[in-house]
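Note to self: keep these together.
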Amino acid sequence: MKIIKTLYLLLLSLFVPLWAFNAVAEVTYTGLTPVQEANARAVMPLASADCGSAIWRVRRLFRDADTNLRRSLEALGYYDAVISKSLSTEGECWMASFDIEVGSPVILRKVNVEIDGEAANDKDFQSRIQVGRPAPGDILNHGQYDQFKSTLLGAAIGEGYFDADLTRGEVIVDPKAKAADIELNIESGPRYRFGEIKFSQGILRDNLLFGFADIQTGNAYDSTAINKLYESLNGSTYFKSVSISTEPLDIENKTVPVTVSLTPGARRVYSVGGGFATDTGPKARLGYANRRRNDKGHQFESKLNASPVDSELTATYRWPIRDPRKEWFSVGVGVRHEKTDTSENDTFKLGVLRSHIMTSTWLQTKYLDYSFENFKVGDQDTSSELVIFGINWEATKGRELSRTRNGSYRNFDIRGASDSLGSDTNFAQLRATAKWIHSINEKTRFLVRGTLGLTMKDALSELPASVRFFAGGDRSIRGYDYESLGPVDASNVVIGASHLLTGSVEVDRLFKSQWAVAAFFDSGSAFNNTDIKFSSGVGLGIRWYSPVGPVKLDFAHPLDDPNANFRLHISLGPDL
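Structure:
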């Protein structure tokens, strides 16, 4: 044991001085901006020397520091800096200090970029090279200049000028005049064309795969089209992995081959889920999807959602029409049972719809539904048969699984039915929903939402419960029971309304990384004609941003009845 202890102390005595010598020396700068100081430290070896460095080496690095410091400042456009410096080698560690007067910067006087070859008349190329381009009046920055040279060549390759060459690139500096000129010349050469396009065989038909692409053999090459093809294929549910190769280039014919290697994704997908909301109670969800029934890209999906208040079983068969990225046709069938304190209905629905992505934001859906519904509302117990034509527009921006910082959701639905087309009644209806989220800083955000419903009808009693409007509940007006607000019958039972108007304002603030507190005000009315009676609720809430999405706990008080108790609302799901 003595020998081991002696060896341990010997090793410790050897390493302790090393730790001490590795302490960082103090090198200070005055007169520099943070950017200038960071650049100076990056190019000055003295700044990285430590207390263990030999003094002779420190003195040599200190002697050369002026040259390094001037070079770092010239890179940022400052050519006449005045430097005062001092070095102290007394004490346990040496110290160096630099006092700098950077002077006036060199200003760009002229920036001349000449393009020869086919790219000279290429508007897309001209647009690409505007990003980060130095301009007369800017402070000379050699790093920005080097980056712009790379941008020139990168843009040329991105537009298909694979033979491009930078024939001239220089910065002419006149330190006395504090001015500089940039001269750049690029010879683009000819623009390459797309060559043969090949897809992996045996997954989907070629005509469907080509529908994912905006490129054709013989078109001018564009790297953006390659990126879009990758994103479209990868974003579909057909493939597990996507790889696109554009090698080797055909130098003789000036063409770029495109070879797309695809790995099929899982054909059958099963899902199980659950949750809880005050409006519906405990919820269970089962799902099955066949994402690739055949090589035409047809898909089948079935879902079962069950809760004490609202249960539904649906099945949908869909297929792409022309452009698989934007246009789909679907046939669906479903049964639904809903029982609330104000109504009960059993519905069978059969429908067809066509979806079309109009822009990167908006989805348009045209639909035709046949529904048969048995319903009870108040003292009314009857059935209804409807053939509904409708069109829906939906846009979502900024949606996140956890906490959305900034985003919006908009949905507009116009639908109607006519007795001349097989329905039991006539009506036309507008339903609109909007939500807006805006963060004012890292922790605090505002949430605003609103709903609007308008119905033109023969008679309210002829409309089934699923077409009427009710207010109240977790996602409507908190502080009130689910669908408990609206016109009532002679027995004071809520029977639904022709129109709906609700709104909410909420602010929440994080107090931990995944926890927030919220305060809110909700108000609105379900009404007929102009007989509007607003009901309002206020409250406080807690938000937990769990790995599977936000969990919301709200305590709300109805303002219509000051003596009423607070109502607890629990809900799960994303903000948008």
